[in-house]
Specification:
This protein has 871 residues and is of the alpha/beta class. It contains 33 helices and 13 strands. The structure holds zinc ion. Pfam families: AMP_deaminase (PF19326).
Length: 871
């Protein structure tokens, strides 16, 4: 039996001469010979595939398979049509799924992975759909939504037709020149009368989630109109996401797909660069500077640049030194006295003494960074100049805000979504904030608001301000339910909320979160000094917002979305919760460490507002920032400034952000315009404005939704992105469907519907349908009633029939339909396999990494090659 021992040469003649060091190594988990034989099999399949390609294929016809064919000048307008008609679909399913292998060796694992991914996408779509965080879920995207004060008239005639709805005769008279007299076109009396009282009721349930009921009877019997997932369900679903995102084979699968996507983009841009440049040169008037850009993540109290703040403080000291600005320690202090108390004169003030810039000394020091909000390091100057609720009722901050608004309006193409704090310390905060905005007339067509809730429960608790966590929830949400039931109970809040897009959760994510290995207590019983973890905060924001949104949609008021800071530092479960229940996130730099979640963010095109300059100062140096990788892979990335006061040097912080990114990452003009387009797509401005900025079809996917005259992104780029995404989704769909046939166990106990994602299945949420039906049919497609993952909803509800066709393709697609020009730039090394049936679907089943993992696990011994049997 000695020939069977691994260290002894076999009985066959030649192997006797082998030196010990050249002998094949074989361990229980590694078998060189088997790996080799597998890679031979791959090579063979690859060859067979090539010999099976019909002669009509582009390769055979001698056309560069990777190059997008340049059409004749006259044909150019039809380019988009061609792509959508069939080029789109052929490109989508070719390359990534080129082969119908005759071996089923790999598919069970691939099936399992795709099934899990599919399950997670369904899970997300359940959460997002339930909380109405969708384009069609928000009444302010309807045609009949009135924006008040009306946005300025488009300067060029062709756009004028899109403005029809928003013309009130009185508002017309008060129209002002953009950049001047901020707020003068706003008149509180024109917002009256407010809508009446609703007969629905709301109640805080035992687990601190506000529930909405149709009447008192439903309330007493406990039948809310919308059933939000319980804390337990939420954590189970979150665990399902985390389980998949840490699963080894799923991780390597995602990593490979992402690398493939990046490579595919690089190949695409190498070959189509000139075409893109030519296409964008053909567009009259439009360039990077005059495409619309939205700053998707910027904190209001740091929205001005430091020079601006300095100038403002100096002018206040010069013009009104005797104004009483502060009440402290039982004394009223004038501005002059305040500056005397800190030993400063106007002359002393400079950028250096102001010391608010954070690019040198705040790396990994979020605590230090927070102190940078204090001018000259003095919290009282912050109190006077940068707070909305102070002795002067936030007048200084309102004045400087108007100056920033005026700059934005003059620049015309830059919009912002300012984040402003509600702390949850007292129930009056909302009314004070709303009064500050309304009384100071802080209204501009370039500005919308997000409300950020700092996670500071531990601070309030330790200062004795509150007993338990439930009080934070009550303070943040009760006024919102009150004003939704009866707007006249908080009239100014009602008006302010019309300009609020959603909620953010902020604080230092890198703070350690102690894990409790028991069930988390409900908020009423959360009375220790420990701060609840990130996921717990986000759950309660989500659950309460879901109830609130449902009621607001029912009343025809605008709804909110969740757009938290997420994945800037800290645990990867922050990103998992971001994926599960948030509309989009800010930062997300830690996605680079979690390929599975990154791939999911890609598949669902979840918005990521990235701020590489801010990260550079705080958590991650610029060169290591994954922004450029994300962008190339096709994630929905936008650039934002975060805190211009602390990070920017110039008067136009957003342009500064783009320009640094362009220089370091070598972004082309088309890349920059694509980033700008993403920012408009992610933002919460009303659909009618987005249509004005991106074109009237901007809610459609792919080329159909692209207007190169507005976005300056060539159709060829859009087609490439769309086709790639559709291809990835088709891949997941195809293999997950196979898996569903084999095993019915779903991810984390969540039962995913087995029928194809694409075949609309009747939805059980009948009450939602009812309310949806009241919406304007022109903005809402009936597909909203179907339960499909949100990406697909996105594709479908964007009215893109081609998305559907191409996703159906794997079943019927034949290799002969490849003759049109698609972005066939993926015939690279990723392919391998063979067809058994000529003309049948060509698709790839060999994913090398997965084969090897399987082999390593030793469960393929039974079908090994001759070498194996010998051992
Ligand atoms: Zn931020």
């Amino acid at each position: 039996m000695e020939e069977n021992q691994p260290n002894e040469p076999g009985p066959v003649g030649e192997t006797r001469d082998i030196l010990p060091r050249d002998r094949q190594l074989r361990t229980p988990t590694y078998d060189y010979a088997y790996e080799k034989s597998m890679s031979h099999a791959e090579a063979k399949l690859f060859y067979q595939h090539h010999s099976n390609i019909p002669s009509t294929s582009p390769q055979a016809a001698g056309i560069n398979p990777v190059h997008f064919p340049v059409p004749d000048e006259d044909d150019h307008p039809s380019l988009a049509g061609d792509i959508r008609d069939d080029g789109d679909t052929s490109g989508a399913s070719r390359g990534m799924m080129n082969f119908a292998s005759d071996s089923n060796a790999v598919t069970p694992e691939l099936n399992a992975i795709c099934h899990k991914i599919r399950g997670l996408l369904d899970l997300r779509s359940k959460y997002v759909g339930l909380s109405l965080q969708t384009l069609v879920g928000n009444p302010n995207n309807r045609r009949d939504w009135t924006i008040y004060p009306p946005p300025p008239e488009p300067a060029w005639g062709e756009d004028k037709e899109t403005t029809k709805a928003n013309e009130g005769s009185q508002a017309e008279q008060r129209r002002r020149k953009m950049g001047e007299d901020i707020g003068e076109d706003f008149d509180l009396s024109e917002c009256m009368p407010l809508p009446g009282e609703s007969d629905w009721v709301f109640k805080l349930d035992a687990s601190s989630v506000y529930q909405v009921y149709e009447n008192d009877k439903a309330a007493s019997s406990g039948h809310p109109v919308v059933k939000t997932p319980s804390l337990r369900d939420f954590y189970m679903d979150l665990d399902a996401v985390l389980d998949v995102s840490t699963d080894g084979p799923a991780k390597s699968f995602s990593f490979k797909r992402l690398s493939y996507l990046e490579g595919k983009f690089q190949l695409y841009s190498l070959l189509n660069e000139y075409q893109e440049i030519a296409d964008s040169k053909k567009v009259p008037h439009r360039d990077f500077y005059n495409v619309r850009k939205v700053d998707t993540h910027v904190h209001h109290s740091a929205c001005m640049n430091q020079k601006h703040l300095l100038r403002f403080i100096k002018s206040k000291m010069k013009k009104s030194p005797d104004e009483v600005v502060l009440y402290r320690d039982g004394k009223h202090l004038t501005l002059k006295e305040v500056f005397e108390s800190i030993n400063l004169t106007a002359y002393d003030l400079s950028i250096d003494t102001l010391d608010m810039h954070a690019h040198t000394d705040s790396f990994h020091r979020f605590d230090k960074f927070n102190l940078k909000y204090n001018p000259v390091g003095e919290s009282r100057l912050r109190e006077i100049f940068l707070k909305t609720d102070n002795y002067i009722k936030g007048r200084y901050l309102a004045e400087i805000t108007k100056e920033v608004m005026s700059d934005l309006e003059s620049s015309k193409y830059q919009m912002v979504e300012w984040r402003i704090s509600i702390y949850g310390r007292s129930i009056q905060e909302w009314d004070k904030l709303a009064a500050w905005v309304v009384d100071n007339k802080l209204f501009s067509p370039n500005v919308r608001w997000l409300v950020q809730v700092p996670r500071l429960y531990d601070v309030y608790k330790s200062s004795g301000m509150m007993e338990n966590f439930e009080q934070v929830i009550t303070n943040v949400f009760q006024p919102l339910f009150e004003v939704t039931r009866d707007p006249s109970s908080h009239p100014k809040l009602h008006i302010f909320l019309q300009r609020v897009i959603g909620f953010d959760s902020v604080d230092d994510e890198s703070k350690a979160e102690r894990r409790l290995y028991r069930k988390y207590p409900i908020p009423k019983e959360w009375n220790t000094k420990q701060n609840p973890p990130y996921t717990y905060w986000v759950y309660f924001m989500f659950a309460n917002m879901a109830s609130l949104n449902y009621w607001r949609q029912h009343r025809g008021f605008n709804t909110f979305v969740l757009r938290p800071h997420c994945g800037e530092a800290g645990d990867s479960d922050h990103l998992a919760v971001g994926f599960l229940c948030c509309h989009s996130i800010s930062h997300g730099i830690l996605l680079r460490k979690v390929p599975m979640l990154q791939y999911l963010f890609y598949l669902d095109q979840i918005g990521i507002a990235m701020s590489p300059l801010s990260n550079n100062a705080l958590f991650l140096t610029y060169d290591k920032n994954p922004c450029a990788h994300f962008f190339r892979r096709g994630l929905n990335v936008s650039l934002s400034t975060d805190d211009p006061l602390q990070f920017a040097f110039t008067k136009e912080p957003l342009i500064e952000e783009y320009s640094v990114a362009a220089q370091i990452y070598k972004f082309s003009a088309v890349d920059m315009c694509e980033l700008a387009k993403h920012s408009v797509e992610q933002c919460g401005f009303e659909l009618s404005l987005k249509e004005r900025w991106l074109g009237s079809n901007c809610s459609l996917a792919g080329v159909a939704g692209n207007n190169v005259a507005k976005s300056n992104v060539p159709d060829i780029r859009e087609a490439f992105r769309h086709e790639t995404l559709v291809g990835e989704l088709a891949l997941i769909e195809r293999y997950s469907a196979q898996a569903a046939g084999d095993e019915v166990t779903a991810v984390g106990g969540y039962e995913s519907p087995i029928p194809s994602i694409l075949k609309p299945s009747p939805d059980s949420r009948t009450s939602r349908e009812k309310s949806n039906r009241s919406m304007d049919s022109s903005t809402q497609s009936d597909t909203n009633e179907f339960k499909v993952p949100s990406v697909l909803t996105h594709l479908i509800s964007r009215g893109e029939p081609d998305g559907l066709d191409s996703l159906d393709l794997p079943q019927s697609h034949t290799s002969a339909s490849n003759d049109s020009g698609g972005f066939v730039c993926d015939n690279g090394p990723n392919t391998g396999g063979a067809t058994t049936r000529p003309g049948a679907l060509l698709e790839q089943k060999i994913f090398p990494g997965i084969v090897h993992e399987r082999a390593q696990r030793g469960n393929v011994l039974g079908r090994g090659g001759p070498d194996q049997e010998e051992g």
